[in-house]
């Protein structure tokens, strides 16, 4: 045809969105660290997912619908915000029992009724200084001979701390915090726990200071040892150390006079008393201080 005619009219096409996308979390894996023994209400993590669909089919309609894993029943997941908090205290949050938990979080679009996706949450329990050092023994005892420079066998005290090994929380140092009032010459290596006398102990001096019954061959010194960790705040434990000081025969008897002289008549009858000598021994216990006499020569 010649001179064709045409006309135009605007046409509007409305594309109705379909739920063809899945929620995508902002991280492939969430890994967080939570101090052990955290209280109820403590925020563990906030997860977040996005969906490019529109309206409720997209990000607006995402709901966090499920939390699964070993401690899921102890946690609360807010379905809208994605915030996970502690809802119940439990030994499961004690690092010394379990140091890591694995959980799974689910997100669904369309107000929790549509497409779903999930992500892994790794929950690491951080160590805090919540364990007091504990001595291996409830009491330590040792024997030390008078004037001896060291114990017969090494005296080593030991305490253990259950906090995370290799950290300040579990590192233990030793000290002497209380002394027997009579003598204070002992030392302890702060890291090894090796206890040694710092000088010789004279039993007779100790006996004079302590008083009490005479002729006691063993005297007791009582010390208090402390083991403290290097965490903050520092925790400590104490234990008694009883050192039994034993007297040795280290003093010679001595006469009251250097020379004894006595004149006797030539006809003195046998069995008569000529003179009496007296010697003293400064050892503090029997039999070390008991004196027996005999004529050595003459």
UniProtKB/TrEMBL annotation:
GO cellular component terms listed in the entry, alphabetical order: plasma membrane
GO biological process terms held by the UniProt record: homophilic cell adhesion via plasma membrane adhesion molecules
Signal peptide: none
Subcellular location as annotated: Cell membrane; Membrane
UniProt cross-references to SMART domains, sorted A to Z: CA
Highest taxon in the source lineage: Eukaryota
Main localization category: membrane
Residue ranges of every copy of the Cadherin domain listed in the record: 26-135, 136-255, 256-298
GO molecular function terms listed in the Swiss-Prot or TrEMBL record: calcium ion binding
A Pfam family: Cadherin
Protein's membrane topology: Single-pass membrane protein; Single-pass type I membrane protein
InterPro entries cross-referenced by the UniProt entry: Cadherin-like_dom, Cadherin-like_sf, Cadherin_CS
Keywords: Calcium, Cell adhesion, Glycoprotein, Membrane, Repeat, Signal, Transmembrane, Transmembrane helix
Coiled-coil ranges per UniProt: none
Designated name of the protein: Cadherin domain-containing protein
């Amino acid at each position: 045809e010649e001179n064709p005619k045409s006309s135009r009219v605007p046409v509007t096409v409305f594309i109705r969105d379909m739920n063809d996308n899945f929620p995508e979390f902002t991280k492939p894996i969430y890994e967080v660290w939570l101090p052990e023994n955290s209280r109820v209400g403590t925020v563990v993590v906030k997860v977040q997912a996005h969906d490019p669909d529109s309206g409720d089919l997209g990000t607006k309609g995402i709901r966090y619908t499920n939390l699964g894993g070993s401690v899921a029943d102890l946690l609360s997941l807010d379905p809208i915000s994605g915030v996970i908090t502690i809802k119940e205290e439990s030994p499961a949050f004690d690092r010394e029992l379990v140091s890591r938990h694995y959980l799974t979080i689910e997100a669904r679009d369309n107000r929790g009724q549509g497409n779903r996706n999930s992500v892994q949450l790794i929950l690491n329990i951080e160590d805090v200084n919540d364990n007091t050092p504990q001595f291996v023994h409830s009491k330590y005892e040792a024997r030390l001979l008078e004037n001896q420079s060291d114990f017969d066998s090494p005296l080593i005290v030991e305490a253990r701390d259950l906090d995370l090994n290799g950290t300040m929380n579990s590192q233990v140092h030793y000290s002497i915090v209380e002394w027997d009032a009579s003598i204070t010459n002992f030392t302890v290596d702060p890291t090894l726990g090796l206890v040694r006398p710092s000088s010789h102990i004279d039993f007779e001096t100790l006996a004079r200071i302590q008083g009490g019954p005479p002729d006691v061959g063993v005297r007791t010194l009582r010390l208090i040892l402390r083991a403290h960790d290097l965490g903050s705040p520092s925790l400590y434990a104490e234990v008694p150390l009883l050192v039994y000081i034993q007297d040795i025969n280290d003093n010679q008897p001595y006469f009251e006079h250097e020379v004894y002289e006595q004149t006797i008549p030539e006809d003195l009858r046998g069995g008569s008393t000529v003179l009496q000598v007296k010697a003293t021994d400064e050892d503090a216990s029997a039999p070390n201080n008991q004196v027996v006499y005999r004529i050595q020569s003459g």
